[in-house]
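Morning run. Coffee first, then this:
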Amino acid sequence: MAIHPKEHRIVLKYADEPGYTPKIESYLEHGGYDTLKAAFSKKPEDIRDEVKKSQLRGRGGAGFPAGVKWSLVDRKSGKPIYLVCNADESEPGTFKDRQIIHKDPHQLIEGMMISAYANDCAKAFIYIREEMPHGARILDEAILEAKGKGFCGDNICGSEYSCDLVVHRGAAAYICGEETGLIESLEGKRANPRIKPPYFPAVLGLYQCPTIVNNVETLCDVKHIMEMGADEFAKIGRPNNTGTRIWCVSGGVQRPGYYEVGQITLGELVNDICGGPLPGRSIKAIIPGGSSMKILKAEDRYKGKNPDGSEYDWGLEDIPLDYDGIAAAGSMSGSGGMMVLDDTVSIPAALANLMAFYSHESCGQCTPCREGSLWLKKITTRMVHGEARPGDVDLMKSVADQIAGRTICAFGFAVAWPVQSYIAKFEDEFREYEESLSNPDTDRTSIKELACNHG
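And here it is:
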């Protein structure tokens, strides 16, 4: 895979290098585990401070600062502290962690062992979804290799510190990407998310003990922060958006794939790195951070004020490709799963596809989510199959509004945000389906073909 000049590869530096393999020999030839060895010359609290100073934000979804998350751990409870790597990667459109696991698993192990040492963890887990069996086998083999060389397990690198590392395979449920649902599953129970408070993982996590849950990419970044120093890491990107970020681009672009970049714009990623839309097509909208994020319309202007009081007025291509830039445009960077929708895509049909997925993936614990997601699936399905009813668009908005913010976990937002934003940005398309199909003289077969032929 050719590396584009605008990429800034750190985590993926060796992932696509010819001859590089997931085996420990390749990793050691490229300086692997040297940073872990050096970590034992530092105090755990110094490593925690360095990560906090780097301003590293979690790469799994919400973008919560990793160093702050570590600082919230209850270290006075007398209970063991656990480290859990979230490798569930269940968000549609996201496949970056899979690349790391398949191509450079020892980087993850090294990052985890540094993080475990920094947080006084005696046991760590990699929670990986059942639908990644090859990745699980690679990790199991890599852990055995690392133990054989003394890089995890007992007396790591000849020190007095020991930490066992275990791969746990989940049941391939979307909700296991939510950290408390993941913890429930890891304990062998149904993955129903916990209520926060009181069940903040940093205080009451795995086995009711203090627990840190970090994403694969986040834990790999810890290794690079300790290698280059927090200040150098922070120079990549901009304040509050430091380091590189891996983006997974799918949909209507010429070069879909995974790309690690620093401070660039959305247009630079989509047009320069990914080659822009397919020949003869134009970009209609972009979902920036995975299917649950709010959609951004290509022809809109995104205006507002920066924290310093200055004003911004962006087109879609001008949006800074980081947490704050995408948030300022009204969406979230989420897990980095960018979906590009071109002018062949029917927005109602795309939403119907998403609602079928989310209604299936609801854990069913909360009534608004359990009933509302199924209701939205039924409405959107009948809309694109020639059975729309008068008032369906308003009903969809009402149902979504009554789900968002009324559930135990953020899955309710994952269901509601697409509905709210798709209708807000493309209401005319939904009204066209509703108004045409509410007329008994409409040729319903043609409407079905319209939905099926798009995309």
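The chain has three domains: 24-238, 244-342, 347-453. Good start to the day.
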